[in-house]
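G., before I forget:
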Amino acid sequence: MPELPEVEVVRAGLAPAVTGATVSSVEVFDARSLRRHDPTAGDFAARVTGQRFSAAVRRGKFLWLPLADPPEESPSFSALLVHLGMSGQVLLREAGAPLADDGPVRIRLMLQHPEHGELALHFVDQRIFGSMAVDRLVDTSDGAPGGLGDSRALVPSQVAHIARDPLDPAFSDAAFLASLHGKNTGIKRALLDQTLISGIGNIYADEALWAARVHFAQPAATLSRRKARALLTEARLVLAKALAEGGTSFDAQYVNVNGASGYFSHSLNAYGQQGKPCPRCGRALVREAFMNRSSHFCPHCQRLRVPRLLQS
DNA sequence: CCTCACACCTGGGTGC
DNA sequence: TGCACCCAGGTGTGAG
């Protein structure tokens, strides 16, 4: 469940269940799902077992559950970091729910919540591009809250280089627009660059570009201020609308913490719509190879515009 | 520095 | 049926 709306659906679902809950046990069934865990930070299971979560927090596509109490030997706070990669899921189940029902469960946490009692947290990940880790929390560079869900100005060290997402109140439109101007690359690459703006992936990049009528390969620096601003607005709109519809689910792989799908796939205008008529002009949408994957766009509405200065 | 190709994985779908 | 090949919501790394 990978882009901002899908990760936010998971965060919002986890928050009431994990906040205040204590981890009673940890089972790692596949150590490859700890690719982001630094072994020098200590054994993953040992670092999490017995800990209490204080919140569920998200920036972009990164999710973390801060641990309420720092370890005795260290003064710094840390968090259970979660990234879903391409195929990760976090499912909340009744204690004793069979693992086999949920596909490849890579890690299971048993939680004890003061009000809700015992429940199981299943980290499922087909392709193992996602991972869990224990990571230390560091100060944010701008002094604003690290992400949605925690008012403290802290982020996991592995998230410190990730830009704020466009739904974050502390996101700086001006800084983002200025950074586009200095980029020597196409606009879609810039939208997907999580150090410039986070939370946007292949689906919502294509949707935002379609809505703003911008070609994916348009050099980022050649977008007018007005066009760049419009694109940012469309990105916000599509993320917010997808979130309101529970995210995009093409199959059972992308679900909320209860295993339910989102509905935004019915609202897609461009992504995966190659061959179908453009909802705006009626001409056929196309798919083109891009960065080892695909771009979907309308060749009529989204033209590549080469500035006169660069023509020769 | 900056940009880009590639590696990291599994499984579903398609066409021969 | 078998099997090669293409495809998939992401990110970190290292070459150039």
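Residues 1-3, 6, 61, 83-87, 127, 129-130, 192, 194, 201-204, 247-250, 253-254, 271, 293-294 of chain A lie near DNA strand C (CB under 10 Å from a C1'). DSSP finds six helices and eleven strands in chain A.

More on Monday.
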